[in-house]
Amino acid sequence: MPELKNWYSSKTIWGAVVAMIASALHFTGVDIATADRGEIVDAIVNIAGALGGLLAVYGRVTATSVIKPKT
Q1: Which residues cross the membrane (predicted)?
Q2: d(Cα 22, Cα 20) in Å, to the nearest integer?
Q3: Which of 30, 34, 43, 57 could be joined to 25 by an S-S link, Cβ 3.0–4.6 Å?
């Protein structure tokens, strides 16, 4: 895998989290359909990506030092 990405951009990670939550909810009587799980994962990945972008912009705007290229 030559391409690197953040953990929160991984549909596999979020799919596993949603599957675990769905299993836990099933024990309490709440059932989430398999088709809905895919939509939930897509929504989580999109939200996480947006939050990551906002955090990056906030961090740069509030930074007190300049980014200097390595020489």
Answers
A1: 12-34, 40-61
A2: 5
A3: 30
The answer to whether residues 19 and 36 touch, using CB atoms and an 8 Å cutoff, is no
* Domain range summary for the chain, segments of one domain joined by +: 34-60
Structure tokens that stand for 56 in this block? 């990056």
C-alpha to C-alpha distance for 66 and 28, rounded to whole angstroms: 52
Cα–Cα distance for residue pair 29/39, rounded to 1 Å: 21
Q: What's the whole-model pTM score?
A: 0.54
**How many of the other CB atoms lie within 10 Å of CB of 63?**
9
